[in-house]
Amino acid sequence: MTDSVEKPSHYTFGKYECIDVIEELSKQNNLQGIEGFLYGNIIKYLWRYKHKNGIEDLQKARWYLDRLISNTENDFKPVGAKENERN
Fold it and tell me: What pLDDT score does 27 carry?
């Protein structure tokens, strides 16, 4: 594969690669399914906005954040909270 597929510059600048950060944070926060997907996309668009599409990427991150809020606002429990605890 080409470098633009394997290691695109808008995801690989700095010390860490975006996908590695998403994977690690998803594991640490026990994110799965749609929640993990939405969370990963938020990070992705925030990560690259200064290196790719600017404001458009920030708007996309906001769209995914709004969707994450909508999907979790009634069922949110902090990581490690007991089953009967609510925030």
Answer: 93
Tell me the pLDDT band of 12, cut-offs 50, 70 and 90: low
The separation between the first and the last C-alpha atoms of the chain, rounded to the nearest angstrom, is 46
The burial of 22, by beta-carbon neighbours within 10 Å (0-12 exposed, 13-18 middle, 19 or more buried), is given as buried
The candidate with the shortest Cα–Cα distance to 57, out of 48, 66, 69, is 48
The pTM is what? 0.76
Cα 16–11–78 angle (5° rounding)? 65
Res 13 pLDDT > 90: no
**Residue 57: enclosing H or E segment and its boundaries?**
helix 55-72
Query: CB atoms < 10 A from the CB of 38, how many?
Result: 20
Q: Which two tokens stand for residue 41?
A: 């996309």
